[in-house]
Design goal:
The structure is a homodimer.
Chain A: E1 11-13, E2 16-18, E3 22-26, E4 29-30, E5 35-36, E6 41-44, H1 46-65, H2 68-84, H3 86-97, H4 101-126, E7 133-135, E8 140-146, E9 150-153, H5 168-175, E10 180-183, H6 189-206, E11 213-216, H7 221-229, E12 235-239, H8 242-254, E13 259-262, E14 268-271, H9 273-292, E15 304-308, H10 311-326, H11 335-350, E16 354-357, E17 372-377, H12 378-383, H13 385-388, E18 396-402, H14 405-413, E19 418-424, H15 432-442, E20 446-451, E21 491-497, E22 519-521, E23 524-526
Parallel strand pairs in A: 7-22, 9-10, 9-12, 10-11, 12-13, 14-15, 14-19, 15-18, 17-18, 19-20
Antiparallel strand pairs in A: 1-2, 3-6, 4-5, 7-8, 8-21, 16-17, 22-23
Domain Aldehyde dehydrogenase (chains A, B): 17-438
Keywords (chains A, B): Oxidoreductase
GO molecular function, one term (chains A, B): 2,5-dioxovalerate dehydrogenase (NADP+) activity
Chain lengths: 531, 531
C-alpha cells in the first residue's frame, strides 16, 4: 500500500475521516479546461469495504432501535447544512462537472437536493412509505422495515441530486432506516467529500450512529461486485452506465441481494404530422431546450424522435438541424463522456444513420463535442433495432422517420424498455386515432408516458415513476424518484402474526403513532386509531 | 417426435386442447400405493413453449383493452366451477398426492382456492392493488399496470391452492391483467389438467381471450430456463425446490425478467424455558399438530425448534419424542419427497445431529418415512450453521438446544432468510427481556414473525407476508399470499405525465371508476372523486 500523503483525501468509515487502504489514486478533471484537478482520491482496497460493512451492520442495528423522528431530524439537519454550504458545493461541482453554476447548480439542483431530503424525512417521520397494514380479524399486521446496509453508486450527471451521499437513492435508503455506504462517482469526488462532511456533522448534531453515512471514492470492479453481494449488504442502488451496472447486477443477483439500477434510456419522442402542422415551431423550441439542456446529459434526454414522413416533418427536421448548428456546444462532464459520445455517434453512423449535423472528434481544449443530429428511416431501424438504440449520452439525438403511423408503431414495438416516452399530437384532437395506436404500443415500453411535453423534467412527486422496463432499470415496478415510492425499494416486508400488542412496532399499534400516518386498516386507508 | 396416443394428455395452447410436441412422457405416482398412475403426460418441446408465448403476447394485448370487471368475472366464474367440480378434483388430487380427502382437500384447500380467486377478483375489480396515485399540482398520475405473460411453476404440496393454474400466483397474475402460461407440477398433472379444463370453460363463458390460461405439463430444464428469460415473458412465479428455483432465477435475472421465488425455509420456532414451565403440554400439542399435519409438507413447517437447556426443555423434548414415536407416519406426496427427506436426514446426522426417533429408509409399500426428530446443541449449530439449516421437507424437525438465551440469539444471527419465525414466551410476561432480545434477532431473518402460535396457517389477508429474505424467496419485499399485496409482483409501474384526461386509464381519471377504489390523491388516500 502506498503511504498516504496530505493530498490523498481521507475516506469516511465508522465515523472517522481516516486514511484509506488503497493501491492506487485518481484525480477528477475540470471539463472546462480538460485538466486534472489537484486533489487525489484513493482507490480503496477490500479492507476499507470490509470495515465499512462491519460498521454499517452495527449502525443498522442501532438505527432499528431509534424512532423514525430521529432519522428524520438528521435528514432535515443535513438538508439545512447543504443549503448553508451552497457556495462551496457549487464551486466544487462546477470545477468537477462543468455544469452551470446558476441557475443549474445553485438554483435548481442544490435546492432540489435539500428539498428531496426534506420530503424523504417527512415520509420517514410519518412512516407513510411503509404501507402499514392491519387486519384486526386475522390478528395480522404488516409493514415495511429497514433492509440493512445499502450501497449507493451515484451517476456522473447530477453531482448533488443523485449524489451517492445526498441524492435520491441516499435519501430513500436513509429514510427507510438504513445506513448507507456511498461510493463516489469518479467525476466529482471532491463534491461528494464536501457533502459527506456535512452529513457527518449532521449525524453528530442529531446523535445518530456515526456509521449511518460512510464514504469511499472508488474500488476495483471486483471489490465493487463483492460489496453488492456481501452477506452484510442489504441492497444496492446504482445509477450509471449499462455495462458497469449489469456487472454489479449479476453479482448481486447471484447472491440474492436486491439491486436497483438505473441504466441507459433513449427516451423516444413520437410526434405526429398533425402536431407539427399545428405547432411545429413550438415543438422545435421545446425539443431543442430539452435535448441540449445540460449538454444533453440527462437520463431522460430525448435521444430518439419518431416521426412520420411528410412536409411538416421535413420542416421540423430542417429547423432542428439549423438550431443544432447554431447553438453552442455545451461542456460535457468528463473526457470519458466526450469519448463515449463520439464512439456512440460513430456506431450509429456505421449502422447507416445519416449525419445531419455534428459528428467528428471531441474538442481538445475542453470536454465537448459538436451538437449532433442523426437521421434514419423506420425501415432501417426495423432492420437493426438493437443497433439504432445505441445510447448517445450527451448533446445528440436520432430522428427516425416512418412511412406511416403503422410503421412508426411497428418500430415502437421493437424498442427496449425506457424511462420515458413522449407523444405529441394535435391539440385539436384531429389525430386521436394515431394517438391511441401509438400510446398503446409505447406505454408498455416506458416507465413514464408524457403527452405534449418533453421528458427532461423529473418532478419529485408521489406519482412520479423514474423507472421503467429492463434495460432502463432492473425491475419495472420501482421508481428511483418520488416520495414515498422510492423508499420501499430499501424496505423488507414483515408480517406480525398474533404478536403481542406491546411488542408491535409503534406504527402497527392500535394508536396512530403520529396521528397522520396512513394505514390500511381492515381494507380501508385511514389515519385513525384502530377501534 | 413420438406419435401421440390416446393416453398422452393434450396441452392447452391458444385455447385449444391439442396434442403436445413432445420427446418424452411421464406419469404421476399414487403415493398411497407407490404405483404409477395410468395417464401419460408429455414433456413439451420448445415448440409448445414458443406457441404458448406467441398466443400469450396476443392475449396480453387483448386483455389490456378489456375492463378489469371482465377479468374479475372470469375469475369468479372459474371459482364457481372449481367448487362445482369438487368431487372429481378431490378424487384426482387424492390419487396424485395422497393428501387427505376430508377435511384437507375437500373442506380446506379447495374452498381456500376458490375463495382466493374470488378475493383476487375483487382486488381486480376495484383496482385496489394498483396503488393509483394522483398528484394534481404536478399533473402526474401513476398506477400499476399489467406486465405481460406470466409463467407460473407450482409446487407439489398444494394441488389446488398453489397450483400453477388455480393457486396464489395464478390468481395474482390474472387479477393484475396478465395471461398465464402454467407449468404443471409433475406430481399432480391430472389434477392440473382438470382445473385447466374448468378455467378454459370459464374463459369461453366470460368472453376472455382463449390464451389467457395455457397449460403445459413439463419441459426440459433448458427449455424452462429459456421460457422464463424469453423476451415475450413478462415475469415468472415459482414455488418449489431451491435448486430448480435458483437455476430459473439465474436465467431470468440475466435477461432482466422479474422472477418471484418461494424456495426452502426451516421456519425456526424459539421457545423460552419460562414458556415451557408455564404451559409445556399445550406447546407440545401445538407443535405436534403443526409439524406432522399434512405429513409436514408445508412451506412453513416448523423444521427447527430453538430451545434453552433446562428441566422444562428436557421435559418438552421427551414429550415430543414420545408423540413423534406414537403418531402414525403420514403419506408423503411422492417417491421423490420420501427420497429427499431421507437424504436430508442422513445429511443432518452426518453433521452430528442426534437422532431422537425416526430415521432409516423410506417405506416401500407407499411413499412414507418415519416421523423423525433430531437434536443438536447451539454450539454445534454455530460450528456449521449452513449444514444444520439443511431443509428436511416432511415429517421431521431439528431441535437446537442452547446454553443460554444469549447463545440462542447468536444462533439466530446465523440463520438464513426464512418465511416465518415463531417465538413462544411466558404469558405472564416474566421473560419479556428474553422475548425482546430474541425478537430483535429473529425479525430481520423472517418474512412473518409469530408469537405464541405455530407457523403453518397462512391466512389470505392483506397483512399476510408469505415471503421473506433470501433464500426463502428471491426478494424481501414481496408476498406470494395475500390480496392485494401479491398482485403488485405482476404489475409494471406507469406514470402518466401531463397525459390528456380522456386518454388516462379509467382508474386515473378524475371520477372514481367504481366509487370504492382507493387512490392516493395529493397525499391522502381516498375513494372520492378528484375535485
Amino acid at each position: 500500500m502506498p503511504t498516504s500523503t496530505a493530498t490523498v483525501r481521507p475516506v469516511l468509515i465508522a465515523g472517522q475521516w481516516r486514511d484509506a487502504n488503497f493501491s492506487d489514486t485518481y484525480q477528477a478533471t475540470d471539463p472546462n479546461k480538460n485538466e486534472r484537478l489537484a486533489a487525489e482520491f484513493p482507490v480503496s482496497s477490500w479492507q476499507d469495504c470490509d470495515e465499512a460493512l462491519n460498521a454499517a451492520v452495527d449502525a443498522a442495528r442501532q438505527l432499528r432501535k431509534l424512532p423514525s423522528a430521529k432519522i428524520a431530524e438528521f435528514m432535515e439537519r443535513y438538508a439545512d447544512r447543504i443549503d448553508a454550504a451552497k457556495d462551496s458545493l457549487v464551486e466544487s461541482a462546477f470545477a468537477e462537472t462543468g455544469l452551470g453554476k446558476s441557475p443549474r447548480l445553485a438554483d435548481v439542483e442544490l435546492p432540489r437536493t435539500s428539498n428531496q431530503l426534506r420530503a424523504a424525512a417527512k415520509a420517514c417521520r410519518t412512516g407513510n412509505w411503509a404501507m402499514a397494514t392491519i387486519d384486526t380479524a386475522a390478528g395480522i399486521r404488516s409493514v415495511f422495515e429497514p433492509l440493512g446496509p445499502v450501497c449507493v453508486f451515484g451517476p456522473n450527471n447530477f453531482p448533488f441530486a443523485f449524489n451517492s451521499v445526498s441524492g435520491g437513492d441516499f435519501a430513500a435508503a436513509i429514510a427507510a432506516g438504513n445506513p448507507v455506504i456511498a461510493k463516489a462517482n469518479s467525476s466529482h469526488p471532491e463534491t461528494t467529500r464536501l457533502l459527506a462532511e456535512q452529513a457527518a456533522e449532521a449525524l453528530t448534531e442529531t446523535g445518530l450512529p456515526a456509521a449511518t453515512v460512510q464514504l469511499i471514492y472508488r474500488t476495483s470492479h471486483a471489490d465493487g461486485e463483492r460489496l453488492v453481494s456481501d452477506a452484510r449488504t442489504g441492497a444496492t442502488g446504482y445509477t450509471g452506465s449499462r455495462g458497469a451496472g449489469l456487472a454489479l447486477k449479476a453479482a448481486a443477483d447471484k447472491a440474492g441481494k436486491p439491486i436497483y439500477l438505473e441504466l441507459s434510456s433513449v427516451n423516444p419522442v413520437a410526434i405526429t404530422p398533425a402536431a407539427l402542422a399545428e405547432r411545429g415551431d413550438e415543438i422545435v423550441g421545446e425539443f431543442i431546450t430539452s435535448v441540449l439542456m445540460g449538454t444533453g446529459q440527462f437520463c431522460t434526454n430525448p435521444g430518439m424522435v419518431m416521426l412520420v414522413k411528410g412536409e411538416a416533418t421535413d420542416k421540423f427536421i430542417a429547423s432542428v438541424t439549423d438550431k443544432f448548428k447554431s447553438s453552442p456546444a455545451g461542456t460535457l462532464l468528463s473526457p470519458a463522456v466526450a469519448k463515449s459520445l463520439s464512439s456512440s455517434i460513430k456506431k450509429l453512423c456505421d449502422f447507416g444513420a445519416e449525419l445531419l449535423t455534428g459528428g467528428g472528434e471531441p474538442e481538445s481544449g475542453r470536454c465537448a463535442y459538436a451538437n449532433t443530429l442523426l437521421k434514419t428511416t423506420a425501415s432501417e431501424f426495423l432492420s437493426n433495432p438493437e443497433g439504432f438504440q445505441t445510447e448517445a449520452f450527451g448533446n445528440a439525438s436520432l430522428l427516425v422517420v416512418a412511412d406511416s403511423v403503422e410503421q412508426l408503431c411497428a418500430a415502437i414495438g421493437h424498442l427496449e424498455g425506457n424511462l420515458t416516452g413522449c407523444l405529441y399530437t394535435a391539440k385539436d384532437g384531429s389525430d386521436e386515432d394515431a394517438a391511441s395506436a401509438i400510446s398503446f404500443e409505447l406505454t408498455p415500453k416506458v416507465g413514464r408516458l408524457l403527452n405534449d411535453k418533453m421528458p427532461t423534467g423529473v418532478a419529485v412527486s408521489a406519482a412520479m415513476n423514474h423507472g421503467g422496463p429492463y434495460p432502463a432499470t432492473g425491475h419495472p415496478g420501482f421508481t428511483a424518484v418520488g416520495v414515498p415510492g422510492s423508499l420501499v425499494r430499501f424496505g423488507k416486508l414483515t408480517s406480525f402474526d398474533n404478536v403481542r400488542p406491546n411488542r408491535l412496532p409503534a406504527i402497527l399499534q392500535d394508536k396512530n403513532p403520529t396521528g397522520e400516518t396512513w394505514r390500511l386498516v381492515d381494507g380501508k386507508w385511514t389515519t385513525a386509531e384502530v377501534a
